[in-house]
Design brief:
six-stranded parallel β-sheet; 38% helix; two-stranded parallel ribbon; 225 residues; alpha/beta
């Protein structure tokens, strides 16, 4: 592994990005590496006495090997559960990629690996005409694509993988999450994606009713990176 960080994107929302991010962090930690998670932009945050907080970002804080201010892990937090550029506009804010890059650099100085979790899918707009693609370019990160196994995921996966590559980014790998325990075509879907996605499969996370980071970490393969 030569990269010191990875950007986790998904085929859509609610496909298992956070669970995979946490499992991926744990897998590196098991190898003896210090790891920090980062959620640069989060919507659907809750008001607390300490300010707006996002549940996924708090999970990344808890899983990280080193202690950082919440604002370093999650520089932009918005209350409404809507697209980030709309949430920022409602809050009268602009999402500054340079601010995110500064926080990312701080995390890199204190950790062997930094795992950055995106928001939504690959083409999510930010503000000022920028998008998540621009953020990944500034951070110079290889991308890992998380796929939620359900009807339609083959099309979404192939389109997203093709777009990541055409955008000039490195698709380092992909992972599948069994988000629907009753999805009947898991094996055939995985076979199709393995044959079609031009990057290694880094893991298939099982469906769990209760989150267990160690169980999920055992299903990831960081050795392929």
């Amino acid at each position: 592994m030569t990269a010191s960080g990875f950007f986790i994107t998904g085929t859509d929302t609610e496909v298992g990005k956070t669970w995979f991010t946490l499992a991926f962090m744990r897998a590196f930690q098991i190898k003896g590496m210090t790891v920090a998670g980062m959620k640069p932009i989060a919507t659907g945050c809750e008001e607390t006495v300490a300010g707006l907080r996002n549940a996924d970002a708090l999970s990344l804080v808890a899983q990280s090997s080193t202690i950082h201010d919440y604002a370093t892990i999650n520089p932009y937090a918005f209350k409404p559960p809507i697209a980030p550029h709309i949430a920022a506009a409602r809050a009268g804010a602009e999402i500054d990629i340079k601010r995110i890059a500064s926080a990312y650099a701080m995390l890199c100085k204190q950790n062997d690996v930094v795992i950055v979790e995106g928001i939504g899918g690959w083409r999510v707009p930010l503000t000022g005409g920028e998008s998540l693609v621009d953020l990944v370019r500034v951070l110079h990160l290889p991308v890992i694509l998380v796929v939620g196994l359900r009807l339609g995921c083959i099309n979404h996966t192939l389109l997203t993988a093709e777009t990541i590559i055409s955008d000039g980014l490195v698709l380092a790998g992909w992972a599948a999450c069994q988000i629907n325990p009753f999805y009947p075509e898991t094996d055939k879907t995985l076979h199709t994606l393995i044959e079609s996605v031009p990057a290694p499969l880094l893991g298939v996370l099982p469906y769990l009713q209760t989150f267990d980071v160690d169980v999920l970490a055992r299903e990831t393969n960081v050795g392929l990176l």
